[in-house]
């Protein structure tokens, strides 16, 4: 059994909080560069080039890629041969967020008690932590700052089983169409299908952890991802919502078994910043 002091989790989360908000991943930059070549709209091309320039400035100056530094969502894969010392996992993650957002001069956006006392917590905590137990003695930490603009455009629907695959496609297109330019396109579309009302939303969000171009391991679902991405880009929303071919950089689908009487579908939209960083302890 491997023992890990939770101060290691705190330190990693602190560093990931700053990195995720200031340094764009290579897969995102490559997708934006490729999109510049594909985009036919001069305005769209200019927006895509500006996004790349913005990422360069953010990295060199250690300033946020976007002023909305998000609700900090953390996915932990914890090996079953790991034991922790020094507190609780939630406390360790929150402390890392607290230190990272303070020392990194990142905007604090979390409001405590939204119904009774909507006051800013002033340190971007609490974070949302998802935990999976996996074989081994390592801990994988994946941090996603999720901005409010894209999150606002996300939707869930308890469909009828008879709606079928075409119903899922139509719901995705309706959601992206209603979102328009609000989530700062080009977007990434995360889709969850199956499970329960709460779990399908988790599936949609977790799908956004994939690298751009990383297809579902099921070849039939992978084909649907490609087809639905094409459908989304035919909507013509384009970069910045000002028209063009590149509305979305990618579309991911995650599925889970469902009840015979239900057909849950969730669409979680990610903005062009698509901030995700991972570390293994």
Which labels suit this protein?
alpha/beta; 2 domains; four-stranded mixed beta sheet; 12 strands; globular
Account of the protein in words:
The protein has 281 residues and is an alpha/beta fold. It folds into 2 domains: 2-20 and 65-146, no CATH class; 149-276, no CATH class. It has 8 helices and 12 strands. It has a 4-stranded mixed beta sheet with strand order 6-2-7-12. Strands 8-11-9-10 form a 4-stranded mixed beta sheet. A two-stranded parallel ribbon has the order 1-3. A hairpin with a 6-residue loop joins strand 4 (111-112) and strand 5. The longest helix is centred in the N-terminal third of the chain and has 20 residues, at 42-61. It is globular and about 50 Å long. The protein starts with a strand and ends with a strand. 40% of the residues are buried.
């Amino acid at each position: 059994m491997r023992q890990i002091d939770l101060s290691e989790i705190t330190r990693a989360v602190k560093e990931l909080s700053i990195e995720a908000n200031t340094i764009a991943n290579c897969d995102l930059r490559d997708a934006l560069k490729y999109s510049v070549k594909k985009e036919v709209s001069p305005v769209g091309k200019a927006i895509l080039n500006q996004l790349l320039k913005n990422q360069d400035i953010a990295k060199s100056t250690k300033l946020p890629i976007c002023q909305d530094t998000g609700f900090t969502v953390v996915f932990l894969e914890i090996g079953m041969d790991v034991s922790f010392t020094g507190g609780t996992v939630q406390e360790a993650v929150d402390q890392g967020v607290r230190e990272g957002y303070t020392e990194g001069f990142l905007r604090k956006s979390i409001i405590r008690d939204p119904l009774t006392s909507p006051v800013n917590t002033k340190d971007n905590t609490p974070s949302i932590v998802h935990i999976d137990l996996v074989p081994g003695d390592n801990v994988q930490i994946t941090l996603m700052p999720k901005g409010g603009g894209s999150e606002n455009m996300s939707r869930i629907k308890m469909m009828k089983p008879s709606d079928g695959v075409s119903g899922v496609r139509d719901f995705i297109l309706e959601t992206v169409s209603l979102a328009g330019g609000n989530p700062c396109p080009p977007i990434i579309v995360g889709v969850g299908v199956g499970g329960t009302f709460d779990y399908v939303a988790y599936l949609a969000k977790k799908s956004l952890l994939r690298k751009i171009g990383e297809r579902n391991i099921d070849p039939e679902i992978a084909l649907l991802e490609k087809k639905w991405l094409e459908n989304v880009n035919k909507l013509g929303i384009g970069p910045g919502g000002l028209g063009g071919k590149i509305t979305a950089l990618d579309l991911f689908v995650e599925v889970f078994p469902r009840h015979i009487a239900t057909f849950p579908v969730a669409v979680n939209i990610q903005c062009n910043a698509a901030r995700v960083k991972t570390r293994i302890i």
